[in-house]
Write a structure and sequence with these properties.
Blueprint lengths: L10 E3 L6 E5 L2 E5 L12 E5 L2 E4 L5 H11 L39 H10 L7 H9 L51 E7 L20 E4 L15 E3 L8 E3 L2 E3 L3
Parallel strand pairs: 6-9
Antiparallel strand pairs: 1-2, 2-5, 3-4, 5-10, 6-7, 7-8
Length: about 250
């Protein structure tokens, strides 16, 4: 592992999947909001330990290394409830759609994301870790600050009508520590079960054996500025979608 001193924003290159990860020093932060959707209430304080989080969502090219190494099925579906055109992988060649190597992989289930994380010797972030990375100690509304900015993320307002290559909106859309695409582009799977706030890590919501819905964070290219913020939560009451991807985390010191 190529590793620097553990201070906020320091980057390591994790050996198992070759992805850059950003160090987040632990602390107590503001989670949720009393002024947003009911599922984000009440605003409360949560303390978490230090961790690393992937600098950007797992891309198609990165996911291909996983499926090549493991034989895991490629994302390819024909369903009535999701437009998979432009995102399905080729079953025969096991290749992602042309021109989308650096786009976040989508059409992945929570179980797919978990399988990748386990292969990479990582884990999925808790929703508390995800929100902490996006909001920081001061509880900002967006990764970059408290006001929505048109050129900072891939939402409806960007008029791209689909996923974008990770880092398209960098550095202006990044967190101060350099984490990329936390709002917009794709919703991201977390390890956490979708349960009401306040968040308590030891109340069973981080049970990996439960078959209930998991939390998605970050909003996507399908969502507008009203939904796309670092507070928004979505229950993953579906198997997959064309605007859902993931990134991984590890405990500090691994």
């Amino acid at each position: 592992m190529t590793k620097k001193q553990e201070t906020d924003g320091e980057i390591i290159v994790f050996p198992d999947d070759g992805k850059e990860m950003v160090f987040q020093s632990g602390g107590t932060f503001i989670m949720g909001s009393d002024n947003d959707a009911e599922n984000a209430k009440p605003e409360h304080r949560v303390t978490i330990d230090s961790f690393y989080i992937d600098r950007w969502p797992v891309t198609n090219a990165e996911y291909k290394r996983f499926i090549d190494a493991t034989g895991h099925p490629v994302p390819n579906y024909d369903v009535a409830w999701c437009d998979t055109s432009g995102y399905n992988w080729d079953i025969e060649t096991r290749m992602y759609p042309a021109g989308k190597a650096e786009h976040p992989v989508v059409l992945v289930t929570w179980e797919d994301a978990l399988a990748y994380a386990q292969w990479a010797n990582k884990r999925l972030p808790t929703e508390a870790e995800w929100e902490y990375a996006a909001r920081g100690l001061n509880g900002r509304r967006y990764p970059w600050g408290d006001k929505f900015q048109l050129n900072h993320c891939n939402t409806v307002e960007a008029r791209l009508n689909g996923t974008s290559a990770v880092g398209t909106f960098s550095p202006q859309g990044d967190t101060p520590e350099g984490v990329v695409d936390l709002v917009g582009n794709v919703w991201e799977w977390t390890n956490s079960l979708f349960r009401p706030y306040p968040y308590f890590a030891d109340d069973g919501r981080e049970d990996m054996t439960s078959g209930h819905w998991r939390v998605l964070r970050g909003a996507s290219w399908v969502n507008d500025a009203i939904t796309a913020n670092a507070i928004a939560r979505l229950d993953g009451d579906f198997l997959f979608y064309n605007n859902v991807g993931f990134r991984c985390a590890i405990d500090a010191g691994e």
